[in-house]
Amino acid sequence: MIKTAMIMAAGMGTRFGHYTELVPKGFVEVQGCPMIIRSIETLVSCGIKRIVIGTGYKKEVYEALKAKYPQIECCYSPRYAETNSMYTLYNSRQAIGQDDFLLLESDLIFEKKAILSLLACKQPDVMLISSLTKFQDQYFVEYDTNHVLTNCSVKKEELDIKGELVGIHKISNSFYQQMCIDYQQIVEEKPKLGYEYELLHMSQSVLPVHVLKVENLKWYEIDDEQDLDYAEKHMAQYCI
Protein backbone atom coordinates (compact mmCIF):
# COMPACT_ATOMS: atom_id res chain seq x y z
CA MET A 1 0.00 0.00 0.00
CA ILE A 2 1.24 3.45 -0.88
CA LYS A 3 1.68 5.64 2.19
CA THR A 4 3.62 8.60 0.73
CA ALA A 5 2.52 11.58 -1.36
CA MET A 6 4.53 14.34 -3.02
CA ILE A 7 2.94 17.75 -3.60
CA MET A 8 4.74 20.11 -5.98
CA ALA A 9 4.34 23.62 -4.57
CA ALA A 10 7.43 25.63 -5.49
CA GLY A 11 5.91 27.97 -8.09
CA MET A 12 5.35 31.69 -7.64
CA GLY A 13 1.76 31.73 -8.90
CA THR A 14 2.22 35.04 -10.70
CA ARG A 15 -1.01 34.62 -12.68
CA PHE A 16 -2.99 35.03 -9.44
CA GLY A 17 -1.94 38.66 -9.06
CA HIS A 18 -2.61 40.05 -5.59
CA TYR A 19 -3.71 36.64 -4.23
CA THR A 20 -0.12 35.41 -4.11
CA GLU A 21 1.54 38.56 -2.83
CA LEU A 22 1.33 37.29 0.76
CA VAL A 23 0.87 33.53 0.36
CA PRO A 24 1.98 30.88 -2.16
CA LYS A 25 -0.50 29.56 -4.73
CA GLY A 26 -1.43 26.47 -2.73
CA PHE A 27 -2.84 28.73 -0.01
CA VAL A 28 -5.31 30.50 -2.28
CA GLU A 29 -8.70 29.78 -0.70
CA VAL A 30 -11.63 28.13 -2.45
CA GLN A 31 -14.81 28.81 -0.47
CA GLY A 32 -12.75 29.67 2.60
CA CYS A 33 -10.34 26.69 2.54
CA PRO A 34 -6.81 26.77 1.05
CA MET A 35 -6.30 24.30 -1.79
CA ILE A 36 -3.31 22.71 -0.06
CA ILE A 37 -5.34 22.03 3.09
CA ARG A 38 -8.06 20.34 1.04
CA SER A 39 -5.41 18.11 -0.54
CA ILE A 40 -3.71 17.25 2.76
CA GLU A 41 -6.98 16.39 4.46
CA THR A 42 -8.03 14.18 1.55
CA LEU A 43 -4.69 12.39 1.41
CA VAL A 44 -4.71 11.71 5.15
CA SER A 45 -8.28 10.41 4.97
CA CYS A 46 -7.12 7.95 2.29
CA GLY A 47 -4.37 6.50 4.51
CA ILE A 48 -1.36 8.55 3.41
CA LYS A 49 1.19 8.77 6.25
CA ARG A 50 3.95 10.94 4.69
CA ILE A 51 3.45 14.08 2.63
CA VAL A 52 6.52 15.62 1.03
CA ILE A 53 5.91 19.19 -0.15
CA GLY A 54 8.36 20.54 -2.72
CA THR A 55 8.59 24.22 -1.78
CA GLY A 56 10.11 27.38 -3.20
CA TYR A 57 8.22 30.68 -3.15
CA LYS A 58 7.24 31.61 0.43
CA LYS A 59 8.44 28.27 1.74
CA GLU A 60 7.88 29.32 5.36
CA VAL A 61 4.10 29.22 4.87
CA TYR A 62 4.30 25.52 3.98
CA GLU A 63 6.82 24.86 6.76
CA ALA A 64 4.29 26.19 9.27
CA LEU A 65 1.86 23.42 8.31
CA LYS A 66 4.03 20.89 10.13
CA ALA A 67 2.76 22.18 13.46
CA LYS A 68 -0.72 20.86 12.62
CA TYR A 69 0.15 18.02 10.28
CA PRO A 70 3.06 15.85 11.52
CA GLN A 71 2.86 13.90 8.25
CA ILE A 72 4.45 16.81 6.38
CA GLU A 73 8.08 17.11 5.31
CA CYS A 74 9.20 20.07 3.22
CA CYS A 75 11.92 20.05 0.59
CA TYR A 76 13.04 23.51 -0.49
CA SER A 77 14.28 24.28 -3.99
CA PRO A 78 16.42 27.44 -3.98
CA ARG A 79 16.18 27.51 -7.79
CA TYR A 80 12.39 27.76 -7.79
CA ALA A 81 12.27 31.05 -9.72
CA GLU A 82 14.31 29.70 -12.64
CA THR A 83 12.93 26.15 -12.83
CA ASN A 84 9.65 24.28 -13.22
CA SER A 85 7.78 21.29 -11.86
CA MET A 86 10.17 18.59 -13.06
CA TYR A 87 13.03 20.25 -11.23
CA THR A 88 10.92 20.42 -8.06
CA LEU A 89 10.25 16.70 -8.34
CA TYR A 90 13.91 15.93 -9.11
CA ASN A 91 15.08 18.11 -6.21
CA SER A 92 12.95 16.07 -3.78
CA ARG A 93 14.61 12.70 -4.42
CA GLN A 94 16.30 12.48 -1.02
CA ALA A 95 13.05 13.29 0.79
CA ILE A 96 11.09 10.74 -1.24
CA GLY A 97 13.75 8.12 -0.61
CA GLN A 98 12.76 4.57 -1.53
CA ASP A 99 9.00 5.03 -1.36
CA ASP A 100 6.40 4.57 -4.04
CA PHE A 101 4.21 7.66 -3.95
CA LEU A 102 1.29 9.69 -5.19
CA LEU A 103 2.31 12.81 -7.08
CA LEU A 104 0.09 15.87 -7.26
CA GLU A 105 0.11 19.57 -7.94
CA SER A 106 -0.66 22.17 -5.28
CA ASP A 107 -3.29 24.11 -7.22
CA LEU A 108 -6.00 21.44 -7.38
CA ILE A 109 -9.33 20.73 -5.80
CA PHE A 110 -10.61 17.20 -6.23
CA GLU A 111 -12.94 14.66 -4.75
CA LYS A 112 -11.67 11.70 -2.74
CA LYS A 113 -12.46 9.36 -5.62
CA ALA A 114 -9.40 10.66 -7.46
CA ILE A 115 -7.04 9.29 -4.80
CA LEU A 116 -8.96 6.08 -4.16
CA SER A 117 -9.07 5.26 -7.87
CA LEU A 118 -5.30 5.57 -8.17
CA LEU A 119 -4.67 3.51 -5.04
CA ALA A 120 -6.98 0.77 -6.32
CA CYS A 121 -5.35 0.62 -9.77
CA LYS A 122 -3.05 -2.41 -10.12
CA GLN A 123 -0.65 -0.68 -12.50
CA PRO A 124 2.48 0.72 -10.78
CA ASP A 125 2.86 3.97 -12.76
CA VAL A 126 -0.38 5.75 -13.51
CA MET A 127 -1.52 9.09 -14.93
CA LEU A 128 -5.05 10.05 -13.90
CA ILE A 129 -7.24 11.70 -16.51
CA SER A 130 -10.89 12.66 -16.82
CA SER A 131 -13.24 13.76 -19.54
CA LEU A 132 -12.67 17.38 -20.58
CA THR A 133 -13.38 19.67 -17.63
CA LYS A 134 -11.50 22.96 -17.84
CA PHE A 135 -12.53 25.85 -20.02
CA GLN A 136 -8.92 27.07 -20.37
CA ASP A 137 -5.30 25.87 -19.95
CA GLN A 138 -6.07 22.22 -20.62
CA TYR A 139 -3.50 19.44 -21.00
CA PHE A 140 -4.93 16.94 -23.43
CA VAL A 141 -3.92 13.28 -23.22
CA GLU A 142 -3.69 10.47 -25.76
CA TYR A 143 -3.16 6.76 -25.06
CA ASP A 144 -3.06 3.54 -27.09
CA THR A 145 -5.30 0.46 -26.97
CA ASN A 146 -3.44 -0.77 -23.89
CA HIS A 147 -4.00 2.55 -22.09
CA VAL A 148 -0.30 3.41 -22.32
CA LEU A 149 0.45 7.14 -22.53
CA THR A 150 1.45 8.09 -26.09
CA ASN A 151 1.09 11.88 -26.11
CA CYS A 152 0.06 14.92 -24.10
CA SER A 153 -0.10 18.53 -25.17
CA VAL A 154 -1.83 21.84 -24.63
CA LYS A 155 -2.44 21.89 -28.40
CA LYS A 156 -5.49 19.77 -29.13
CA GLU A 157 -4.71 19.57 -32.84
CA GLU A 158 -1.51 17.59 -32.09
CA LEU A 159 -3.18 14.45 -30.76
CA ASP A 160 -6.15 12.13 -30.68
CA ILE A 161 -7.72 13.40 -27.46
CA LYS A 162 -8.82 10.73 -24.99
CA GLY A 163 -9.15 12.97 -21.95
CA GLU A 164 -7.63 15.71 -19.82
CA LEU A 165 -4.71 15.58 -17.41
CA VAL A 166 -5.89 15.93 -13.80
CA GLY A 167 -2.48 16.51 -12.20
CA ILE A 168 -2.52 13.50 -9.84
CA HIS A 169 -0.43 10.37 -10.48
CA LYS A 170 0.86 7.18 -8.91
CA ILE A 171 4.60 6.59 -9.30
CA SER A 172 6.66 3.56 -8.33
CA ASN A 173 10.07 4.26 -6.86
CA SER A 174 11.86 2.31 -9.58
CA PHE A 175 10.16 4.45 -12.23
CA TYR A 176 10.99 7.62 -10.31
CA GLN A 177 14.65 6.68 -10.05
CA GLN A 178 14.79 6.15 -13.82
CA MET A 179 12.98 9.43 -14.32
CA CYS A 180 15.59 11.28 -12.24
CA ILE A 181 18.48 9.60 -14.07
CA ASP A 182 16.96 10.63 -17.39
CA TYR A 183 16.29 14.22 -16.28
CA GLN A 184 19.74 14.60 -14.74
CA GLN A 185 21.20 14.45 -18.25
CA ILE A 186 19.21 17.51 -19.40
CA VAL A 187 18.56 19.44 -16.19
CA GLU A 188 20.78 22.38 -17.12
CA GLU A 189 19.52 22.38 -20.69
CA LYS A 190 15.83 22.24 -19.72
CA PRO A 191 15.42 23.64 -16.18
CA LYS A 192 11.87 24.76 -17.00
CA LEU A 193 10.64 21.36 -18.17
CA GLY A 194 7.19 20.44 -16.89
CA TYR A 195 7.03 17.05 -15.19
CA GLU A 196 4.23 15.89 -17.51
CA TYR A 197 6.58 16.05 -20.49
CA GLU A 198 9.18 13.99 -18.67
CA LEU A 199 6.45 11.42 -17.92
CA LEU A 200 5.62 11.42 -21.63
CA HIS A 201 9.25 10.92 -22.64
CA MET A 202 9.56 8.05 -20.18
CA SER A 203 6.41 6.38 -21.49
CA GLN A 204 7.49 6.73 -25.10
CA SER A 205 11.04 5.47 -24.71
CA VAL A 206 11.84 3.97 -21.29
CA LEU A 207 8.97 2.58 -19.20
CA PRO A 208 5.22 2.67 -19.92
CA VAL A 209 2.89 5.01 -18.05
CA HIS A 210 -0.62 3.63 -17.68
CA VAL A 211 -3.46 6.11 -18.20
CA LEU A 212 -6.44 5.70 -15.88
CA LYS A 213 -9.55 7.53 -17.03
CA VAL A 214 -12.15 8.11 -14.32
CA GLU A 215 -15.49 9.24 -15.69
CA ASN A 216 -17.56 11.90 -13.90
CA LEU A 217 -14.63 12.85 -11.67
CA LYS A 218 -15.09 16.17 -9.90
CA TRP A 219 -11.87 18.17 -9.90
CA TYR A 220 -10.42 21.47 -11.05
CA GLU A 221 -6.98 22.98 -11.50
CA ILE A 222 -6.94 26.64 -10.45
CA ASP A 223 -4.33 28.72 -12.24
CA ASP A 224 -5.74 32.26 -12.08
CA GLU A 225 -8.66 34.38 -10.93
CA GLN A 226 -10.93 33.16 -13.73
CA ASP A 227 -10.33 29.57 -12.71
CA LEU A 228 -10.94 30.46 -9.07
CA ASP A 229 -14.27 32.07 -9.88
CA TYR A 230 -15.36 29.08 -11.97
CA ALA A 231 -14.27 26.54 -9.34
CA GLU A 232 -16.06 28.33 -6.51
CA LYS A 233 -19.28 28.43 -8.53
CA HIS A 234 -19.22 24.95 -10.05
CA MET A 235 -16.78 22.59 -8.32
CA ALA A 236 -15.99 23.41 -4.71
CA GLN A 237 -19.04 21.68 -3.23
CA TYR A 238 -17.90 18.35 -4.70
CA CYS A 239 -14.30 18.59 -3.56
CA ILE A 240 -14.23 18.86 0.21
From TrEMBL:
CDD domains: PC_cytidylyltransferase. Keywords: Nucleotidyltransferase, Transferase. It comes from the Bacteria. GO terms for molecular function: nucleotidyltransferase activity. Signal peptide: none annotated. The keyword Nucleotidyltransferase applies. The keyword Lipid biosynthesis does not apply. InterPro entries: GlmU-like (IPR050065), MobA-like_NTP_Trfase (IPR025877), Nucleotide-diphossugar_trans (IPR029044). Residues 5-121 form the MobA-like NTP transferase domain. SUPFAM superfamilies: Nucleotide-diphospho-sugar transferases. This is Phosphocholine cytidylyltransferase family protein. The lineage of its organism: Bacteria, Pseudomonadati, Bacteroidota, Bacteroidia, Bacteroidales.
